[in-house]
Input
Amino acid sequence: MTNMDDIFRTNLENAINESGLTNAEIARRIGVGRSTITQWLKGVSSPTQSKIVKIAVTLNKEPSWFFIDNTKKQRVINNLTDKQLTLAMSVDPDITDEQLQQAINYVRFMKEQEDKKNDTNGKN
Output
């Protein structure tokens, strides 16, 4: 996906779904008709810059977020197990790259130890 309009539409739809708000409520909050939201989602028209700012505030996003291609990242996230998501969500967002690598190494080490234990006990 490289077309900015496509990226915007996809991210707008995702943000609306995340928000739990109806198109009518979003339209009311940003001062447009519900059909305008539908037109944006279908690519019939595009919001002005000032409307994008209002959309972002309403949906609790940065305006630039709507123009970031998240499709690859989303595919990776969708393929994570519940345990992987739990681990990922427990990491402090301010962690350094070195600390992150240490955590990854520790988790791998623990898994290897468990695998060795299971091999010894005949569980594999």
Remarks:
- The chain is about 70% helix and 0% strand.
- The radius of gyration is 21 Å.
- The helical segments are 4-19, 23-30, 34-42, 49-58, 71-78, 82-90, 97-120.
- The mean pLDDT is 88.
